[in-house]
Amino acid sequence: MATETRERIVQRSAELFRRQGFAGTGVKQIVAEASAPFGSLYHFFPGGKEQLGEEVIRTSGALYGQLIDAFYVPGADPVAATRSFFAAAAVSVRESGYADACPIATVALEVSSTSEPMRQACADVFDGWLDSATERLVECGLPRKRSRALAFELIAALEGAFVLARALRSTEPIEVAGAAVTGSVREAIAKQRARRAA
Amino acid sequence: MATETRERIVQRSAELFRRQGFAGTGVKQIVAEASAPFGSLYHFFPGGKEQLGEEVIRTSGALYGQLIDAFYVPGADPVAATRSFFAAAAVSVRESGYADACPIATVALEVSSTSEPMRQACADVFDGWLDSATERLVECGLPRKRSRALAFELIAALEGAFVLARALRSTEPIEVAGAAVTGSVREAIAKQRARRAA
DNA sequence: TCAAAAATAGATAGATCGCTCTAGTGGACG
DNA sequence: CGTCCACTAGAGCGATCTATCTATTTTTGA
């Protein structure tokens, strides 16, 4: 089945978009690096580059979102999970030579004011991440409202740390931000335990 | 003095870059919207678009950095300053229709893997912000090490909240992130006072 | 006042952009 | 065996990209 060509296009696009941005990546470069025929791109994506962009955002966003569930497994310690999550992010960013951080942030900032379908795709991805993180924290016994605030704090700190890490070529922002979020989670858990004991 | 043309080019570029990114903005569009002669762009910036980009990053980055000093004035309450800082950011983002958030984040993510001089400019700007915030917190009586960690937390949370706010078209990320950072500052101040009392 | 320098003005080069088009290939199925 | 259809393949279109070029106008300073 030749639909592997389609997958190669999406995967290569995902890598190029997150590194050079959407506007900074040409369709010729995509098909060349994906070893795909040029005609196939418009065969699989009749909506052109924008349709490809939207799909790349949704698929790579969903893939990355699975990491949240992978770290915050039910029954595990959410404090340790938070620490591990940021530590893993730092390793991943460093190992890619500070090239690959968030799969959609670069595109998100680029298209939020220029392409409504792509902006919506980014919003859906972020909403999905926030919902995932919120649910995992609720399962840890935290109140829903507090969980949602922590989810925002977690995603925002991670995204911001990624921006700094890529520009500064350092994992320090990720480590420091991770420590801060870990502290917030620890405090929330402690407060919740105290309330239950009373 | 005709150097106002040069300033118009820089200012207009700054606005366009932060909204559509560096690669997504053409030099023709810049001179058109800046009401500047096309030849003037290459007269003032013989290094072309990249030189313009670097200068835009440095100038608009320095301008934004002054906000840090404006909010964390010596003698003022750092907790209230943090709250005000994020509140002002939220208002600013909303009033621009979620178009203008961080002046350099969009470009930073775009060029960190494609243009070393522009990446370095972004790194210098971020370093400047971190140094400013660190100094202001040190002046508030916090230990230098703790101040620097809080500075990272502050900038990272703000940057990440900006990414989310623009895509979600909501100020909630900025408000929630602001509350988290404000809490961290409050806690650091309280801990420092307790240490001094002992 | 006049020459030199600075800035304006825009035509245009050469490359690349996203995209369309037609032709051809290979395999599945009647 | 022949037909259909998904996919491959790439030439090429018009538009746009960055940048250079020459010519002209404006400003500056001796």
Give an overview in words.
2 copies of one chain form a homodimer. By secondary structure, chain A is mainly α. In chain A, 79% of the residues lie in helices and 0% in strands. Chain A has helices at 3-20, 27-33, 38-44, 48-71, 78-95, 105-111, 116-139, 144-168, 172-197. In chain A, α1 (3-20) crosses α4 (48-71), α5 (78-95) packs antiparallel against α9 (172-197) and α7 crosses α8 (144-168). The longest helix of chain A has 26 residues, at 172-197. The radius of gyration of chain A is 19 Å and the shape is elongated. The first copy, chain A, starts with a helix and ends with a helix. The model of chain A has no long low-confidence stretch (mean pLDDT 96). At the A-B interface, α6, α7, α8 and α9 of A face α6, α7, α8 and α9 of B. Chain B binds a DNA duplex (30 and 30 nucleotides) through α3.
Features of this protein?
homodimer, 198 residues, mainly alpha, 9 helices, elongated, DNA-binding
In short:
Two copies of one chain form a homodimer. Chain A has 198 residues and is mainly alpha-helical.
Which residues of chain A form runs of ≥5 with pLDDT under 50? none
Radius of gyration of chain A: 19 Å
What characteristic shape of chain A results from the CA principal axes?
elongated
* H-E string of chain A: HHHHHHHHH
Largest sheet of chain A: none
Q: Identify the most extensive interface between protein chains.
A: A-B, 46 and 46 residues
What's the count of strands of chain A?
0
What structural class results from the helix and strand content of chain A? Answer: mainly alpha
The span between the termini of chain A is 62 Å
Question: Which percent range fits the helix content of chain A?
Answer: over 70%
Mean pLDDT of chain A: 96
Q: Beta-sheet strand percentage of chain A?
A: under 5%
**How would you name the oligomeric state of the polypeptide chains in this document?**
homodimer
List the total number of helices of chain A: 9
